[in-house]
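are you around this afternoon, could really use another pair of eyes. what follows is a protein written twice so to speak, once as letters and once as structure tokens for the fold. i want to understand how the tokens follow from the sequence so walk me through it. anything you notice is useful, everything is just below.
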Amino acid sequence: MSEPAMNLKMFVVPLMMLGINQAGIDINTEENKLKIQIAFASATAFTFLLYLVVALRVWLKGDTAKTLKVSEKQLTGENAGEEIMVEYNYKDYDLKQIRTKLTTAVMGIAITGGIHYKWGMVHPLLIQSVLQPMNALGDPLAKIWLMGADDSQGANKRPFAAEKPPSMFSGLAAAADPKKEEKEAGKERKARGAANKSTVKRRIKD
């Protein structure tokens, strides 16, 4: 299995949040909140629709003749926790990957929605509105079954390389407070200055 290439998608969220901050856009107005909520709902619907279309194509045209072996962790039984080799045909492997992706998507949506509902934070919705379709369109399954990509080499070759998608939390700190790092550095400088003054006073007394 080839090593995943450098994920350029990880820079999208920080750059997007930086652009919003630099432009002085207030995403917490009622009008912008509504727009972001609609964008989030649309991105979620697009992602699920994409995977459902892929699943349908795999179900109808999936290859049951070709097989591959993948290493999986045994979850139950006497060998629980151990890595074992499991053989799949291409059709079953692709369907299993789709189920995993949909499960991950549901968890992400639940977390994002929960954060927005509980604390009223808009940034997670905005970030996920970009990440959901971006990750779905970049998935090897979408490239193979919807874009006709070659599945015999590179990142589209089965078994797919484990790629860590960009996190929705990667831009939240900067979005919440763009000058946070500067403030923290200032606090550290003040603390060091106070410590130095205290040391000087003790030396004078001695």
Remarks:
- Helices lie at 12-23, 30-61, 90-119, 123-137, 140-147, 172-176, 180-205.
- The longest strand covers residues 67-73.
- Strands lie at 67-73, 83-89.
- The chain has a mean pLDDT of 83.
